[in-house]
Amino acid sequence: LARTHGQPASPTTLGKELKNVSYRLNRQLEQLDRQAILGKINGAVGNFNAHYIAYPEVDWPALAKTFVEESLGLTYNPLTTQIEPHDYIAELANNIARINTVLLDLARDIWGYISFNYFSQKVIAGEVGSSTMPHKVNPIDFENAEGNLGIANALFQHFASKLPISRFQRDLTDSTVLRCLGTAFGHSIIALASLKKGLGKLEVNHEAINTDLINNPEVLAEAIQTIMRRYAIEQPYEKLKALTRGQKITSKRLTEFVDSLELAAEVKARLRHLQPKDYIGLAAELTQDKK
Q1: What is the C-alpha to C-alpha distance for residues 187 and 41, in angstroms, rounded to an integer?
Q2: How many CB atoms lie within 10 A of CB 179?
Q3: Of 13, 7, 5, which is closest to residue 248 (Cα–Cα)?
Q4: pLDDT per residue over 119-168, tens digit each?
Q5: How far apart, in Å, do the first and last CA atoms of the chain sit?
């Protein structure tokens, strides 16, 4: 059972929800693969001043490009001040922050599904469930991941906004900030390890999921009012809203409503037999179409 605004919504599948995450991550990873790492070797203010005065016969821009790209394996930045301006680090930081945000979104959603009992967690021998309530198996791996991703992103976002700024041809404000790059990556790696551990402990609770679907037949209101629109029945949304909004209804009540509609017998039969577990659209197909 999907949830929008925290409320029961049109059903989905576990595979489709995880595929959403996979697709988002793959987009960001493809951008990460294309990220250029820039380098420079052009002197104190970026003009080859000392280089040129000592060896005016040398083609310094060409030599610098060859050295940076072939010897260092970086992408040559031909126009800088004293420092490479760190724009690529800002791009990288923003990219990693987006990856972390997708993972944080996943951690929170899994935490929520555990609270709905959609997932149970494997009990690990010797693990403390709660300091005072020994029966509990808390979703600590997802909480740890969320905390570490938050710290990492606070740093990555600071890198992205601060590092490209340096007064005139150079100030030293980047120096202390650059020393924290490893800290941000470290928290990201710890978060990944926590997520991996937590995901490995999950077991799908099919009974709880099926029970939730059975207990929320009102999510079929969307299907019924859409069919009503197709066959030009007046005020379909308003009629379903009056029937279902903010209240629990039974499958029997929905069936009675369908029977009252001026629809062909075969259309009514289709709606009568529709169950929340079957109302998943193209969820299964969508998990196959995208990488």
Answers
A1: 32
A2: 9
A3: 7
A4: 999 887 666 666 667 777 899 999 999 999 999 999 999 999 999 999 99
A5: 24
Which tokens sit at 186? 């470290």
Active site members: 5, 130
pTM over 0.85: yes
**Token code pair at residue 233:** 């029945």
Q: Which of 50, 76, 82, 41 is nearest to 167 (CA)?
A: 82
What DSSP letter does each residue of 159-197 carry, written as one string? HHHHTT--STT--SHHHHHHTTHHHHHHHHHHHHHHHHH
Coil, strand or helix: which one is 97? Answer: helix
**SS3 call for 120:** strand
Q: What is the pLDDT of residues 15-72, one digit of tens each?
A: 999 999 999 999 999 999 999 999 999 999 999 999 999 999 999 999 999 999 999 9
Residue with tokens 């906004």, as numbered in its chain: 161
Q: Which residues contact 272 (CB under 8 A, 6 or more apart)?
A: 255, 258, 259
Radius of gyration of the chain (CA): 28
CA angle (2, 105, 289) in 5-degree steps: 65
CA distance 153 to 96: 8
Q: Report the C-alpha gap between 250 and 3 in whole angstroms.
A: 19
Domains of the chain by range and CATH? 14-35+83-206 (1.20.200.10), 41-79 (no CATH), 216-283 (1.10.40.30)
CB–CB of 9/223 below 8 Å? no
Task: Please list, in sequence order, all residues whose beta carbon lies within 8 angstroms of the beta carbon of residue 268, skipping any fewer than 6 positions away.
Answer: 258, 259, 261
Measured CA to CA, the distance from residue 152 to residue 155 in angstroms comes to 5
